[in-house]
Amino acid sequence: MRTLVALLLAVEVGGAFGTAAASGTETGPGVIEVELRVDVAPADGPVLAHLTLPGEETQTRPLVDQGDGTWETTVEVRAADWRVVFEAVAAGELSQELSLSNLGVERDLLAEDPAIATVPDTEIESTPWSYLLVAVLAAAGAVGLLVYAVFGLRARRRPSPPSRRSAPS
After folding, report:
1. Is 153's pLDDT higher than 60?
2. Does residue 103 contact residue 7 with C-beta atoms inside 8 Å?
3. In this structure, how many other beta carbons lie within 10 angstroms of the beta carbon of residue 159?
4. With 141 labelled, which of 27, 48, 67, 166 sits at a CA distance of 20 to 30 A?
5. Sign of CA dihedral 88, 103, 7, 105
């Protein structure tokens, strides 16, 4: 089994995101384990990673806050140059789309499949509308939960109606 030893490259992502990086390890024939890292302020989390590849189902993985603004996850995928979009749920932001190779995974770990051409990141289209829709729905859900927590759980005590005493006659 061949192992990629260290983080090779950190990419400045922008927006709510600081730097992002990835490292990989071959775990079997045509399979790699990828560790993804991104810097996001804890208040802007939780953070999700959306991995896409033509002909494959999109994989969405939550990242774990390491306590210092660094969020990490490990995912096992088919060896290919997957595209990654990070999502800062509370901030309602999506990162630019980056390839695993541009995040630091060595290209020789990424299987070269003629059906899946490696496209330079400069040729990648802007963020797909489906990711934007997911971000908007997640933000709306978070706002809904906040409104419910503030107004719905508060005990609504109404004063009891004053008692009516009849005046002595």
Report:
1. no
2. no
3. 5
4. 67
5. positive
